[in-house]
User: What shape does this take?
Amino acid sequence: MARTLAPPAALAVHAASRVKARDGGGIVAHAILLAAVAVLAFPLYYAFVISTQTLSQVTSLPPRPWPSTAFLSNYAEAWQRAQMGRLLLNSAIVALGVAFGKIAISLLSAFAIVFFNFRGKQVVFSMIFVTLMLPVPVRIVSTYQVMSVLGWVNTYWGLTVPLLASATGTFLFRQFYQTIPNSLAEAAQLDGAGPMRFLWSILLPLSKANIAALFVILFVYGWNDYLWPLMITNTPEMRTAVIGIESLVPRTSQLPEWNIAMAAAMMVLLPPVAVIVVMQRWFVKGLIETEK
Amino acid sequence: MKRFVFRNRWLPYALVAPQVVITIAFFYWPAFDSLRLSLYRASPFGDRLIWAGLANFERLFRDPAYLRSALTSFVFSFVVTFAGLALALLLASLANAKIRGLAVYRSLLLWPYGIAPAIAGIIWLFIFHPSYGILPWLLSFVTAYQFNWFLKGWVAMTLIVMAAIWKQFGYNLAFYLAGLQAIEASVLEAASVDGAGPIRRFFAVTFPLLSPVTFFLFTLNMTFSFFDTFGLIHSVTQGGPGDTTSILVYRAWKDGFEGLQLGFSAAQSVVLMALVILLTAFQFRFAEKKVTY
Assistant: This one.
């Protein structure tokens, strides 16, 4: 994920203040936005349409831009041919593992950094934050070698854990914890609550929005990551969905079964898109916060 | 204000331990190993490493294929970023009015962010398909030119540029819209009283006020098109035809994993690291006012 430092402050307040209406601007604005939405939606609509057509409909000209009757048979065929059940399960394990794993470790380390003084704190802090700079792709070959030393090639550990080595989550929780008033922690201590009790009963419930924001970003990242699972897996059973369906994309010498390929593509893109649509409010927050 | 801290000798170490261990094992170790590997080459049988000094880097900067890749990467990233942002800003400015249902539009614009670049690539691959795709078919009414991306590098490049812009465009637009809506009307009215026309107003007032949004989107789109488009290249063009769409990340992967030239690939990783560090330095330089450490 990217490492921008300038948050567009305007967005954080959800565009509270608005420009006054200008004469006639409304209709033009609606027209432009509707057109943009339609143009953006067209490729997805077209992919869906193809996924419902028969092979002869897909390969005949002119193209037919409306759905047909082969929906069920195409999706069933794609499901079976690509072992889609297994692929989606793998992607779900990776996406959820990355999301919850990173939320857990960054909640804890940010808690230690903000609510404790300890020797070497500054070193730990700098060490973690340097990782904001380098994404996985720039150290691919070496990370693979680390994996083979650990015996993690072609395992769920190998798929998930290396993606946790970044500071975006820690950064986000640290910023948030620093806004927590001292009185809250002091009161907890007066009541006899230890630090872990304070983390669990007070800090965690307060962090819900931040956790949700991070979850959306990390789930999408884990589900859609391509380079790492391509390198670290070497059997079809361990492939994640974005990679596994590639075998269904017809190459030049093959039967042009684009309807099957599109059915598979629709199934793979649905979960992350659904997460974004359902958790949209936190998605926008997460996009801004993790890019800080 | 002094921060409240809990007193505990060992707990903070236990709390940071998971992150520290993971960071060392999967960040520092591989990063330093890349640096080390970049100074070696594999023996003819591939069973041991031979000291090579800076030979890998020398070879890199003399290799016309690598330099072509670097150019391809920069052209691709700049086209995706600038075309994407310019179009988004233009549409957002035209659509900037107080209207109902902005939240609904935002939902309808943000979803493509969730589509993996590789999947976006497969969809656009079919749209561009020389035999069955809707785009070459439509173009065939206008011109006899064959828009075959299997054969023509620039068509393949257009394909991946379109797929990349498509995926990014919705949230570029959504963020610009929100940025524009947050600009106070009074500021623009003041400029208009001073006699500035709409175009002048845009460049003198609106665009500077939007610079945080532009900066944010610029970095996001640059990192996306430089690194996250690996899946798009791998699933659609595989760098081809020839090596016309072989961006730097794709080449580093190909030389390392298919060519098994570990030292050569590690040297490419080191160059990529240097580029990212430059980009980060650039961010710090231009954003330092907003950084709160």
